[in-house]
């Protein structure tokens, strides 16, 4: 495998067992836990000036902190997304600054590309010929794109309620697309059935591959560099399975280990009230979520009723002194529309939960008047333009 100097292997976050990354490809063989890439940080020689001197061209500029070399990467120059100043929002929220990290500018329009770039690179390194996953939509589209680029076959299971763009583009990228009646759990069950019949499939499922959260940690490196290393007072993240939130947390702890920052930025999980297991667990002071029995939200990316990594997500929120907030679908859509009207920026409904959550936190007095608030726009608004437009229709517009 073409691994980087500091990458030493994989460690199970549940039982602590360690594995050679050339052999272990997915979950822990001892306990089925999540595997997390590990590094020898003493072998990484990075300072702020070195990073600044590199072109801001893709997430692979942080190659030293990733498992695989840039030369071996399956990449479309994902990442390096702008952090856009939002003065109107700052005024509305009554804070010093609001900045939107616009992940909609990625190759397939969402931050899922960071995870799939790394996930598909690992698949190639492990000699896979076909990747497979179930997804709410965006991860499946992204996987099909990267698989196509790498010359791998892909099989994707999406629930019937996933968006038209996702379904269409899986096919356009050459993926084998299976639309499953029902919701994400039903798509997951159909995927498991398929997996049993195909032992050559290489799973790109959330947290089943160790590399998706690993790719997403680069969002944190970028936004701190873009803020010239000022630690923001809040990062609001629209949370489904929590892959990105865990990535942000890992990225921040790594920068602290390397001596590049002293404090961790507070991470806030924003969810939709119709499916808010992380918010419920946070408010209850629990270390783990309770599965949501009847999830129902228009935010497909957030409709994850049973997020297996919840202990890690809750740790990220608590260790960074962040928080968790749920808002209703109509408020989320309204926030997405307001951001589009006032700032010009387009947020997909799932992402708009982060804007809506920030609004609600501001209303509750969580922020100070000089605070800097970062909102993660995980996906482009035009992926679900119909959903945003229908919100206007509900208002007679
Ligand atoms: C997948 C997705 C999310 C949720 O991501 P997690 O990191 O798994 O919590 C949020 N927004 C969009 C647009 C997504 O596609
Ligand atoms: Zn384990």
TrEMBL record:
Q: Which GO MF terms does the UniProt record name?
A: L-serine ammonia-lyase activity; threonine deaminase activity; threonine synthase activity
Task: Look up the EC number in the record and give it.
Answer: 4.2.3.1
Family annotation (SUPFAM superfamilies): Tryptophan synthase beta subunit-like PLP-dependent enzymes (SSF53686)
The Gene Ontology biological process annotation of the record reads:
isoleucine biosynthetic process; L-serine catabolic process; L-threonine catabolic process
- List cofactor names only: pyridoxal 5'-phosphate
Q: Where is the Tryptophan synthase beta chain-like PALP domain?
A: 74-379
User: What Pfam families does the entry give?
Assistant: PALP
- Highest taxon of the source? Archaea
CDD domains in alphabetical order = Thr-synth_1
Sorted keywords for this record are:
Lyase, Pyridoxal phosphate
Give the protein name, as stated in the record.
Threonine synthase
Species source reads: Natrarchaeobaculum sulfurireducens
Taxonomic classification: Archaea, Methanobacteriati, Methanobacteriota, Stenosarchaea group, Halobacteria
């Amino acid at each position: 495998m073409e691994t980087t100097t500091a990458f030493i292997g994989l460690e199970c976050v549940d039982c602590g067992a360690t594995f050679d990354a050339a052999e272990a490809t997915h979950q822990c063989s001892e306990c089925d836990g999540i595997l997390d890439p590990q590094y020898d940080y003493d072998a990484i020689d990075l300072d702020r000036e070195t990073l600044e001197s590199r072109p801001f061209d893709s997430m692979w500029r942080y190659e030293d902190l990733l498992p695989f070399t840039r030369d071996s990467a399956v990449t479309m120059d994902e990442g390096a997304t702008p952090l856009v100043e939002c003065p109107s929002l700052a005024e509305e929220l009554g804070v010093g600054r609001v900045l939107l990290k616009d992940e909609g500018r990625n190759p397939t329009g969402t931050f899922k590309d960071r995870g799939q770039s790394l996930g598909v690179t690992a698949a190639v390194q492990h000699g896979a010929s076909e990747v497979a996953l179930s997804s709410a939509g965006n991860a499946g589209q992204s996987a099909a794109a990267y698989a196509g680029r790498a010359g791998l076959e892909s099989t994707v299971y999406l629930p019937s309620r996933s968006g038209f763009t996702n379904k269409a583009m899986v096919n356009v990228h050459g993926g084998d697309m299976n639309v499953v009646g029902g919701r994400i759990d039903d798509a997951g069950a159909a995927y498991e059935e398929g997996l049993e019949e195909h032992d050559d499939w290489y799973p790109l499922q959330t947290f089943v591959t160790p590399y998706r959260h690993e790719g997403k940690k680069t969002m944190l490196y970028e936004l701190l560099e873009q803020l010239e290393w000022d630690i923001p007072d809040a990062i609001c993240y629209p949370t489904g399975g929590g892959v990105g939130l865990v990535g942000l947390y890992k990225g921040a702890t790594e920068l602290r280990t390397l001596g590049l920052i002293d404090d961790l930025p507070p991470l806030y999980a924003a969810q939709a009230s119709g499916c808010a297991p992380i918010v419920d667990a946070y408010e209850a002071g629990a270390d783990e979520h309770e599965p949501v029995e009847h999830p129902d939200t228009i935010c497909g990316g957030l409709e994850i009723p049973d997020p297996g990594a919840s202990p890690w997500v809750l740790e990220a929120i608590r260790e960074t002194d962040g928080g968790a907030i749920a808002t209703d679908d109509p408020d989320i859509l309204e926030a997405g529309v307001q951001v589009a009207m006032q700032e010009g920026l387009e947020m997909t409904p799932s992402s708009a939960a982060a804007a809506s959550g920030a609004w609600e936190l501001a209303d509750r007095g969580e922020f100070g008047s000089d605070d800097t608030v970062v909102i993660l726009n995980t996906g482009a608004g035009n992926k679900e333009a119909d959903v945003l437009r229908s919100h206007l229709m509900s208002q007679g517009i």
